[in-house]
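Lab notebook, bench 4. We co-purified these components, and the gel suggests they stay together. Before we commit to crystallization screens, I want a quick structural picture of the whole thing.
Request: model the full complex, all chains together.
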Amino acid sequence: MTGDSGPTPAERKQWEDLGYLVFEEAISGDVLARLQHAFDYWAEACKEEWLGRIAKGEAAATYYDIPNTLEKDDVFIDILDRPKYYRYIKAFAGDDAIVIGEQVRTAPVWTTSYTGWHPDVPPSHPLHIKVQVYVNDVEPGGGEFAFVPGSHRPGAGPYPRVKNLAAMPGHKRFAGKAGTAIMFNSYGWHVAMENHTETPRKSIILIYEKRTPDRVAENENRFASISHALNTPERHRLFGIS
Amino acid sequence: MPRIDAHGHVFAKVSREFPRETGGNTPADREESVEKLMTYMAASDIGQAMLVQMGGATAAHHAYVLHCLRTYPDRFLGIGLIPEDLVASPEEHMDRLTDGTGIVGFRLGLVGGPRDPFDDVDVRTFLTYRIWKHAAEKDLVLWLYVRAADAHLIAYLVDAFPQVRVVLNHLGICPGEGKGRHDQWGRPQIDIASYNPAFHTTHRLSTYENVTMKLSGHYAFSKKPYPYEDLAGWHRAALNSFGADRLMWATDFPWIYEEPGYDKLVDLVEKLTPDIMPHEYEAVMGGTARRFLRFPDLK
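Here is the predicted assembly.
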């Protein structure tokens, strides 16, 4: 598992070869409690709007993202640069990462998963990193995140379009306690597995990218409303605010 | 192997013999006959088609479709409707309309389960449960074009009744409340979110072997004129997730006779998925419909 001092040579090799790292207790104690409270509070507060958007065909009923979370509670900002994993993001992005956003997501129990196996971006895209943080305990068979190690590398695959998610060759599943974070290269094939428990999966997906002028230009407007919290040079840089 | 148009509508002028409800694009004196359809089909080398009832759901309203099925039994199959007041006890209506008539299933516009996706689910409480149960018992097809609020509920019934053959209409889209209007040809136009929620609801039903989808209705969803290039990604995604053996091409006649034209729709699959393999193309253009809907041999 990962430590507090940044990537060791072995961790860097795992990242480069396999495309993922796991951080147990990446968020814990008071911060985790704050996060869980804010998550549940805003999930309830925004739910009726979400149900309305489902009826209008504007949102899917199979996953629920709380909108505009960065404006709702600073804990949703604070988790973007938690040292336990953020120092790895900086290391892998050449100290030049920029945040794209976050998805504060509950996946209701359903008959299958809300998504199939997929990469997010092709390897021609600037380095794209996601950190999946579990907000509640996610058991095996509880809709856990899964990844195909090595699938992020140029020339990997092709990977079959399996209808049964469990049939994807070579995949690895990541059950975990609340506060566990799984960092992965978004070039790689990943999915939320089926949830055979009675507990919806709560997680937050933090999204980062290697800085490019286009992303910086987008972020100038995207994060203007949370300027009060972007109060250090490091955060200015992370959020791409000049 | 004949090519099959898997979805469209025919109707006669309103008469004592062929009663029907009227609407904005179906006034009493309009007719879109099966013979007119056959002319278009012949010109494009389309051998068979599915006639989907419209203009009322009572047994009497089905008179023209039943007439067409009796007259051309090797050319057409039919999909019926169920009146709202019979949804809770639909068996007799379903049996009457499918008793050797050529009607092989029913179209549904809702599922009727809990609104909140976090609620406990018991499919026996769903409004349409008895329709699904009877379809399972009688080996009938269910033809789904349900409201957006119900999109995720389909999965529970598909899961409960794996023997029911399910056809998702019109690219798996489930129209949202207040998102419909009509274009200059009187056809429905459905405003779809830029990121299509169906990718996470109906398209996920590709995991079930008893679910197929129709590549149709493009005119209603596209923001571009024919060949609706903004929907090419949806075609590719459908081909990747369902596979050609569970996809069916359809025109949604008669709404496309004038714009863009029946013959244009026949070319649509090739235009939107130019890299489709020949065997996949054959399946989408008729093979899947023939196998899944059990079209008869052409005489």
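The interface with chain A takes residues 115-118, 147-149, 151-152, 155-156, 158-159, 174-179, 190-193, 197-201, 204-207, 240-241, 243 of chain B (CB under 8 Å). Worth comparing against the SEC data before the next meeting. Strands of chain B lie at 3-8, 46-52, 76-80, 103-108, 141-144, 165-168, 180-182, 188-190, 211-215, 247-249.
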